[in-house]
Amino acid sequence: MPTFSQYLQQHSQQHGIAPELTSTVESIVAACVEISRNVRLGALSGVLGEAGTGNIQGEAQKKLDVIANQILMDTLRKNPNVAGLASEEEDDFVAAAESGGYLVLFDPLDGSSNIDVNISIGTIFSVLKKPQGSLHAESFLQKGSEQVAAGYVLYGVQTLLVLTFKHGVNVFTLNHDNEWVETQSSMSIPAQTAEFAINMSNQRHWEAPVQRYIGELLAGKDGVRGKNYNMRWVASMVAEVHRILTRGGVFLYPKDNRDPSKAGKLRLMYEANPLGLVVEQVGGKITNARENMLDIRPTGLHQRVAVVLGSAEEVELVRQYHAE
Fold it and tell me: Is there a single domain that holds both residue 203 and residue 172?
C-alpha cells in the first residue's frame, strides 16, 4: 500500500497539482498527526474537560479545541505557501506568509462535545487559492466550488485521513509509526439509501418540508416511501459524513424556528463546504435545502447554513419539498 508521500507524488504528477498546494496539504496533515497524539492520550495528558473560554459563536471551548487550533495555526504559519488562515475558533482571519498562494480554513476539532465520552471527532479543512492583492476577509469568501483541496481527519477507532484534490477521494490510515498509508482509493455514495441521521429532539422546531420528509421516513414500509428506514445520530458531523461515505445515507441539520434570523447551525466555510466537496466527489449531493451548497457565495467567515447531504435521491427529495 502506498504511503501518503508516494500518493502525493504520483497524484500531483498525474493531475498537474502545484507543489505549493501539496506542501500546504502536507502541513495540514502533519498538524493532524500531532492532534491525534493529544486526542489519543486524553486524560493521561490532562487535555480533557472545559477550557473555560468561548469561541466567536458563543460556544464553550474544550481544552482540546484550543490545543488543536493552536497546533494547526503554529504549523501552517511556518509554511511559506500559506498566505492566511481562518478557523472556527478565531474571531477573524490570521495572516501568514505574505508571498503565499493559498488560504486554509478549518474546524480544528469538530464534534468536541463528544471528546470526554470518547466518541469519534475530527478535523475538517479547506484550501483555497489566494486572490491577487492584499489579504483581507473577502479573500476567503469564495464559493465551495472554488476549493482546490479539502478533507478531514477522523480520530476514531483508527485515525483516518480523507482527502480530495477534486480528482476523486482517497483514504489513508495512520499506522503505529505515525505514517499515513493509503487504504482506500475508490469510494462512492449510493444514490439510494434506507438510513438517515438527524437530531430528532429538535423535531418540533423544524420547518414544514422537513417535518413532511422525516414523517415519511418514520412511516416506513406502510408509508409513501414503501420501505423501512433506520436512524443514526452521533452528534459529530465528521463522523456522520464518514459513515455516509462508507455505506450511504442522508444527514440533515436543518434550519429551525427557534431563531428565524439564523439560516442554520453549521458553518459554511469550515464544515459544509469542505465536507460538501468530498461528498460530491464520491457521487453524493449537498444542499442548504434550497440550492447546491458549493454554489453559495459566502457573506462572512462564520456564516451558518442548513445542511442536507448524502445519497443523491434523498437530498434531491428534500430540496424538492422546500421548493413546493
Answer: no
Q: Is the dihedral of CA 136, 27, 119, 191 positive or negative?
A: positive
- Find out whether 308 and 287 touch, Cβ atoms under 8 Å: yes
Is 257 assigned a ligand-binding role in the annotation?
no
Which residue is associated with the grid cell 476539532? 109
**Where does a domain end: 139, 166, 185?**
185
- Does any domain span residue 226? yes
> Cα(124)–Cα(106) distance, rounded to whole angstroms?
5
243 and 94 in a single domain? The answer is no
Does 110 carry a binding-site annotation?
A: yes
State the pLDDT at residue 276. 98
Residue 88 marked in a binding site: yes
120 marked as part of a ligand binding site? no
Is the pLDDT score of 48 beyond 90? no
Residue 130's nearest CA partner among 81, 165, 76 is 81
Same domain (yes/no): 45, 135: yes
133-170 per-position pLDDT tens digit: 999 999 999 999 999 999 999 998 899 999 999 999 99
Domain around 140: 4-185
Average pLDDT of the chain to the nearest whole number: 93
The reply to whether 267 and 155 lie within a common domain is no
Residue 128's SS3 state is: strand
Q: For residue 129, how far is the Cα from the chain centroid?
A: 18
Does residue 94 form part of some domain? Answer: yes
Going by pLDDT thresholds of 50, 70 and 90, the confidence category of residue 261 is confident
- Is 107 assigned to a binding site? yes
Same domain, 22 and 171: yes
271 annotated among ligand-binding-site residues: yes
What is the C-alpha end-to-end distance of the chain, expressed in Å? 49
